[in-house]
Automatic annotation (TrEMBL):
The lineage of its organism: Bacteria, Bacillati, Bacillota, Bacilli, Bacillales. Its main location: membrane. It comes from the Bacteria. InterPro entries: MFS, MFS_dom, MFS_Na/Anion_cotransporter, MFS_trans_sf. The keyword Transmembrane applies. Keywords: Membrane, Transmembrane, Transmembrane helix, Transport. This is MFS transporter.
Amino acid sequence: MRWVVLVLLFFGAVINFADKSIIGLAAVPIMKEFNLTYTEWGLVGSSYYWLYPITGIFGAALADRHGAKKILGVLMLTWTILQFGVIAIAALPLLIVYRVLLGAFEGPYSPIAYSHADKWFPPKLRGFANSVVVGGGTVGAMIVAPILVSLITIFGWKIAFALLGLASLVWAVLFQLLTKESPVDVYKEVRKKKKEKLEKINLKDFLLLLASPTALFTTLAYFSAYTLVVWFPVWLPIYLMEAVNMPAAQMGFSVMVIGIVSVAVYTGVSMLSDYLFKKNQNWRLSRVYVVASSMVLGAILLASVIVFQNPIWVVTALCFAKGLTYAILPIGPTIMINEKRERGGLMTSILTSSGNIAGIIAPVLTGFIISVAGGSKLYGYNLSILFIAAIVLLFSILFAIFVKPSSSKDKNMMNKGSTDNSDLIFSDAK
């Protein structure tokens, strides 16, 4: 059952990120239809994230209380309605409203998915499990790009959006029919015993926890990576076409290649992290140092495309820059959940929603930079890339210095007498 859950969470992330990225793949026809400037297009990209951080926290808290299965089902049905509703969009204001609402209801998916996967897998496999969920995001954002481009070309961008709504509906039905909320029935009893604890949280202590170096700098590192996460779906297609001079078909293929290679890279980093953790139970060595080193190298490779602008090198560098920088996405949630396991959904939502604030800033900032660059679009794109690389480099170094997770938390959970509900999962219960 755990693998069925993980596979469906993977495909849920595919849909989630396809919904995010298709707007970038349809940028040219949408901008032409509504006569949009680069600044206005940046506003469209940013609007998706205006409510995303808030609803991410709220939705994950609801999942902690009422169950991930129920909340994810509701979210997916809402995506379906919104994607079908895109057919009625006739002007920029309606396009922005649609993106705001879609972002609001898609915001909770990632933290809920990370927390839900965490229930089903032991510590030695959580990095891999989360990398699978993150991999679904990369598939949705980049690997299926040629398919989405074909749908946009053949049917038009509105019909292509509606087809993604149909995919959401199919997923919602399958998730309700094929999965369970938890690995064992006893888990329900554990949650009943903890219900009062879940209803009462000391706000002061929780805020102090979020302000601790481990939580704070993990969140900032995640934030820095997310500036790249949102840049890829909104600006990469246009960048490859306008700055690297790729035709649409080559652009779609390049986006797919970047996605495929990057999945292999950050999955490999996650598996290395899991392997080291299994060997030594050392959070600093296996989680923090591995991720920080990966992000530093990713930032350097990202910045290199400014200097070496040969199309082959650009695609190659972006493959590894994306994969290495994204290493924080699967490992960050494991660090945050470790800080307060009984509030796993809430902890991951703080992480992802804080990171998604980058989604509000990055698209608008990129559009503004390109606009003020004057006649040189290439100069504007290069400045935006350099800014992202600098942010990633800075916060990955701070992450390595200040993040010191307590290894005792997972050790306690693995003790036979532990009352943490994760013990029920580690036993490989059928």
